[in-house]
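Entry 14. Ran structure prediction on the chain below.
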Amino acid sequence: MGGDPRGERRKTARVCGRAVALSAERRLSCFYFAYFAHLGAFVAYFSLWLQARGYSPPEIAAVLAVPALLRIAAPALWGWFADSIAARLRGGQPAFVALLSALAAASFAMLTQASDLHAVFGWVALTALFTAGVLPLVDAMALAALSAQPGRYGPVRLWGSVGFTAAVLATGAWLDRAPVTVLLPLVAALMLCAAFSALALPHARTESPHADPRGALQVLREPRVAVFFAACFCMTVAHGALYAFYSIYLVETGYSTTTVGVLWTLGVLAEIGVFVALPALFRRYSLRAILLASFAAAALRFVAIGWGVESPALLALAQLLHGLTFGAYHAAAIAAVHRLFGGPLAVRGQALYASLSYGLGGAAGILLSGWSWSALGPGPTFTISAAFGLAGALLVAWKVRV
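Output, structure tokens:
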């Protein structure tokens, strides 16, 4: 009749813990949705905004390389600020993320007033500086909040893909009826929504139960780690032409911006499917196997885009491979970094990954595609992208064991 008080307390604690975790997942999901909505509108159509202002392919590539260049060092800078300063802010790290997001929104709004290419470079650099610190910090909060169930990262992160998809489709349809000048005010508004949603983010727990006697650079010098990062560099270089010129390529071939949005969306839908299946994929396949499949898919995807642009069906199939070349690859790469950099090195490992892959690799890929687009044309440019995907697969097969 009296029951077991300790058992009841444990049961209550479990129920409360699940409720708190669910609340954290919802708050994280809302932020990811808003943040990636801004990213979808910007990534898919900003090159069209630049083209409408009369800039050449090398100039467009140079502008689009600025965010990647800043991602070489900015994630580590903002990570240090978050560790040393954000704790003293009222609201902690969520308030710090909200501040960065609000400053990015203001920079996007000012970009609409840029009168020449130098001003465009300046405002794009500011937006990139502020946004470079946002995702690493939020991912750290997510991993801390979901530490008891790391497989839940995929289902939470997929809401970012949903936001990206919604923004790409809606913006593409809007730009069929409105001038491209409406793009940046929309991006600024979406970024402001992300700033407000950041205020509700769960606070990250930064303590680590295990010390690692090694430094991050010491781990990086291990052959398998160095080769892994070289492969990640190749994957990001391979995507340079896609992010810089894919929309331009399709519009110049005769596709409407609505169709461009649908094709971008197909890729993100495949990405969502991968995130949903992530726990099962990780149980069934090794990280190395997932990485190998992702790199092989990149080689196939970019050959198809480069030489099959006249076929909507082939383009659609190529976009579905985005589920592997980004969704599966990104999830496996982050998990591999988590294994390679243990304990207190975890954040620094992710910063190195962001810097060497998305920073250095992104800048190299966009600049290379800007040169090759003018000198060689679209087909050879995407063939170079495919070659980098193949090179990454060979590097993983050679040395990477995770």
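The domain at 24-204 is CATH 1.20.1250.20 (Growth Hormone; Chain: A;). Will compare against last week's run tomorrow.
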